[in-house]
Amino acid sequence: MKKEIKSILTEFHPLIFGVFVMAISIAVLSLFTDLKYQVFYDMIFKATAETGAKTSWELTVFWVSLLLGTFSIVIFSFIKKKELNKKFKENFKLDLVSYGVFIIPISFFLILTQTINFFYFIMALIYLLLCFFIEEKEKRYKNLILLNLIYFSTLSVKALTDKLIKKVEIIPYDSIYLITLLLFVIIFYYLRKNRFKNLDKLILYFQFPLPLMLLTYLTNKYEYNNELIKIAFSRRYKAVIIFFIVYFIIINLIEYRNKIKNIKKAKPLITLSTVILILIIRFYVEPKFVHYGDFWHWGEESIIWHQIFEKKLILFDEYIGTTGLFPMILGFIQSLLFKGSSLSYLPSLAITNIIWMSIIGTAIYFLIKTDFVLFIALFLVFPQYNRTHMLMLSLFVLSNSELIKRRIQWIQMYILLSILSVFYYPINGVAVALGGAIFALTQTYFVIKEKEYLKIFKSKLFWVLNITLILPVIFSLKNTLKLIKIISLLSSSSLLADGRAGKFIAEDWFMKYIINQNLKDNIWNIFVLLLIAFPILISTYFLCVYLLKKDKILKKIKKPEFFILTFSIIAVSINCSYSVMRINRNVDFYRNASIIIVFMTIMIIFLYKYGNRYISHNTKIIFISICILIGNISAEKMTKFNTTSFGEEYKNIKRSYKVDDNFEYVNGKDFDIPKLGEGFIEKNALEKIIINKEILKKIVHKDERVWFMYDREMQKIFDLKSPTKMDSPFLTTGLKPTEVNLSSMKELPIYITDLNIGKYYTYRWAIDNKYAIMDYKGFQFWIRPDRYKEIFGDIKKAEEYLIENSPRQDLKYTAFSLGNSMKSLKKLMKDIRKYEIDSLQIEGEGIEFLTQKKIKIKDINNSYIDIILPEIIDGNKYDFLYLELSSDYQVNENREIVILWETDKYPMKENRVVILEDKNGKLLIPMGTHPAWLYSDVTKIRLKFVNMKVDTTIDIQKIEFMQLNRERKGD
């Protein structure tokens, strides 16, 4: 046993060393975070600025650490080349299922999370018990398969009985495990008695009921306010579900007929439909007519179809999908099956998922071609927020060894999938294109070298693929440049607008036995970044092992192993360039989880199919268990979205849906909003829709345009055209993207919703165009001046409202973030008014003047200084104030400063206030974020020091008023 452990550790050395180097690098570089400041190149007041985060440095920590870890693996692999090429004798071989699937993943999951999956654990116990009754591994393996199929067959029978017998629940949820276990025990007794003669047949038989699970997609009853309300599905929707049920039954019949003829040689026993159906029920979306009020994401996934096909806007020229064309599929289904109603989003998403899982399940089935495909289907589960479908499909299709042997067809398929992927979701599309580029070049090399092109012209598949490629190639040639421009525009401000904000805070479930919270947070920070990097590290390790094995290099680079490993390294790295940046402090991991799960899946397949060629059997089993562990943690613990845990699929078989009191039953026709549809909607969301409807009726005429900030699904609900290419100002924060978006506007929108300081350039554009604010039932709308005047009269009243009633602006750490980036931001200023502190008249209360510019706090509750300006400052022109203060700042000390101002016309007022946090005295304050400042001729400013310790000294070193150059070019 000692020899086995030693040999495993010897093989693990390069990877262990690389992981260790990366972990140490993260820990060391993170110590310097407080010494770094984020560099701003534009006025973007989003999460990075508001939180004072050091996003660029935090990303540098990840990438430098990843590179060090990767290089360490490569260097150590070359040093240990001889050991990696040794063949170790294994006196004791680990069982794939016992150790790889159960014991190791369950044990480490328990250590990390202090939780255990009950059904997973029971399966493990049953399999271990089978070891006492069955000596042959294959028979134990098949009995475990049978147990899983009995479980899913029970779910299928429940789905059927729930639909046939509506008054009584024949199979309650809490009886499913018991029924599964009893059936298995009875069948096992019968099989053992007959020496397992009919085991293979029973595996085939128990797959027949599985298509009936899809009957749960026809559940249309809702428990609401002690009533049972029924909302009918459209005939087209029901026809689609019935089609899939019949389709999968036919597949089962065909496969059964083919396999039963030669049952002893039938491989795999698992049918294609079983793989697909398990993927569907695990990646389940409740097809219910319920709206949770998320107008942003639901709009993202449905509005593009509405704008292009219903409102006839030209794709890329008049309207663009800001995150690719992936919503087209859902939008098409929603339009076809439900006439595009908003409340049909979830049923449409359910059909979309069924289609995707059918395609991806087929690719996986033909990639593996053994019964192990069942375990892959059980392992593969995604959070609902998932953009990896095309990447996943491309990876599984292009990894197929049979397709790889047909090099020209592989190249054609690679081109097709790359084009589709890029337009589907650009970042993952680039990952597909570049990830497969190295292998595409090798395939091209061998096509030319071996003159395969001379034989290919007779192949029908070659011409079919060529014809298939015509439209995608034409489409890509026409629109690629436009897409690149869009991506470059949005990505130019993405780091500052959407970047990671601050050090990760450990989840409650993580290593509860560590009491010291700071230590726990540091370990968590390393753990999260290692988890993201692991697909790259493990792929690098196996690529080194693969290339260092004794064989000709030309033989190695033509094999599927080479494609899988090179693709994984490149594709995950490209995806990380965006997904790592978007992780917030609480590790909202849904962007990363999907990628990790996909590439852990392909690594499991790689190890299962090819592992024994390059590493010892026991090492292979341990690696498979690690990949399962990482996939499980990513899916079940690292995302805020609910996922279906193994053994909890029964919860997806619904008799009815429970709807709480926070929702309202509606029919869009009752509100004269047919696009809303029928169903339940969150009450606040309904109120927002009704108020917008009233405003539209009151001030917007036919065919006029409206601009929704965050509630962009409203464009579709009210059947309106988007006024700009990018449908929401929320998407454009920097100067250049804002200018491009505004220039696409054919007419000024009648009103704009929720316009706030985070979109400073759009906000200033609205002020420049004299948009007026109207407060209607607690909601604020920016109305075009001519329409305001037409309906409400004098526009001066609107200006007065802005000055007198605009709320105070809490900038949080924005001024601190900008102030520590003056070197770059000063270049953006058009004019600067500087004042010598000694020449200014400064008064105060609750303070002691030590010198003209140095003060001491004497009153913790009321201390401020008034700076009387020597000249009037035009607030509309000078929209930024730079303050430089010197004081004894302590580490992690936050000081709050409140700024008020006075004009000849208006005295200081509590709502005309800008609030900011000060950490080191360098403050660039965007005073223009308060509308009243832009209408003020400022004569005096007040700096109010909130709850500052008595005897704190502050030295006022600089005061400068700055004018942002919003007409600058070249950003």
UniProtKB/TrEMBL annotation:
Q: Which UniProt keywords apply?
A: Membrane, Transmembrane, Transmembrane helix
Give yes or no: UniProt keyword Protein transport.
no
Membrane recorded as keyword:
yes
Q: Transmembrane ranges? A: 12-33, 60-79, 91-112, 118-134, 141-158, 170-190, 202-219, 239-256, 268-285, 319-338, 460-477, 523-548, 560-581, 593-611, 618-635
What protein name is recorded for this chain? Answer: Uncharacterized protein
